[in-house]
């Protein structure tokens, strides 16, 4: 059983990353929030992992946040919910937002996640409403306008990275990414584009982030025509 993985981030793909550890490259499936939180390639990373062995495959799922791993474990323990659906839930809803949706019996929020139907959402509410007490249901707010670049080593680059990580956990960011996923864009691509447009967008609403992201996503098609 692989419980954690530390090594160099070699590749970032659509819903996965490749981490080299001990001369071996491990392909790790990750949620949108984990994908966004990870640094650029070439940097050492550490992931909490869940290693799932099947007759036809060995799957490795990675999490930056231990709470996300705990929610993943709870999700796959629910009848009819496999690891891929669990990752889809965590890509569409942060642990805090998922816990709040379960507490409030907000079926609509849960079924907004691709691959999650109403019966599955209702089952999640029934089976998990008493098991998520370890999570705070408060969603961190985006950084204020007075948060400038970090002082010292790293300079403006570190400031932008820190702001991106905080924004990656904000409700408007999650809503923008979830909207793009609902439109059919891969979760990793949606997260990457929203992250990039967010850096210069300022304190705007989620729908404005979606508009800016769509402008970037459709641009190659327009040029091709």
Task: Give a quick summary of the entry.
This protein has helices spanning 32-37, 66-76, 83-92, 95-103, 107-111, 118-128, 155-168, 171-182, 187-198, 206-224; strands at 4-12, 16-21, 24-30, 44-53, 58-63. 48% of the residues lie in helices and 17% in strands.
The string of secondary-structure elements, in order, is EEEHEEHHHHHHHHH
Question: Into which percent range does the helicity of residues fall?
Answer: 40-55%
The total number of structural domains is 3
Q: Tell me the strand order in the biggest sheet.
A: 1-2-3-5-4
**Overall mean pLDDT:** 79
Which ranges are low-confidence, i.e. pLDDT below 50, for 5 or more consecutive residues? Answer: 138-169, 220-225
Reported for the largest beta sheet, the result is:
5 strands, mixed, barrel
DSSP summary: helix tally:
10
- Shape descriptor: globular
How many runs of DSSP E, i.e. beta strands? Answer: 5
The class by helix and strand makeup works out as alpha+beta
Supply Rg: 18 Å
Strand content: 15-25%
For the termini, the CA-CA separation is 50 Å
Classify the oligomer: single chain
């Amino acid at each position: 059983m692989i419980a954690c993985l530390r090594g160099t981030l070699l590749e970032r793909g659509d819903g996965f990353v490749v981490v080299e550890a001990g001369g071996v490259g491990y392909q790790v499936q990750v949620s949108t929030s984990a994908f966004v939180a990870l640094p650029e390639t070439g940097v050492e990373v550490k992931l909490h992992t869940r290693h799932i062995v099947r007759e036809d495959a060995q799957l490795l799922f990675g999490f930056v946040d231990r709470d996300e791993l705990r929610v993943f474990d709870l999700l796959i323990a629910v009848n009819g919910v496999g690891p891929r659906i669990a990752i889809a839930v965590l890509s569409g809803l942060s642990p805090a937002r998922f816990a709040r949706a379960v507490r409030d019996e907000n079926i609509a929020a849960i079924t907004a996640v691709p691959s999650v139907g109403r019966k599955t959402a209702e089952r999640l509410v029934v089976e998990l409403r008493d098991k998520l007490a370890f999570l705070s249901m408060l969603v961190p707010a985006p950084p204020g306008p007075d948060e400038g670049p970090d002082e010292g080593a790293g300079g403006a680059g570190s400031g932008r990275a820190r702001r991106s990580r905080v924004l990656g956990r904000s409700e408007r960011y999650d809503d923008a990414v979830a909207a793009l996923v609902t439109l059919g864009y891969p979760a990793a691509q949606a997260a990457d584009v929203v992250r990039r447009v967010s850096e210069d967008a300022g304190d705007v609403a989620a729908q404005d982030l979606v508009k800016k992201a769509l402008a970037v996503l459709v641009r190659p098609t327009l040029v091709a025509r």
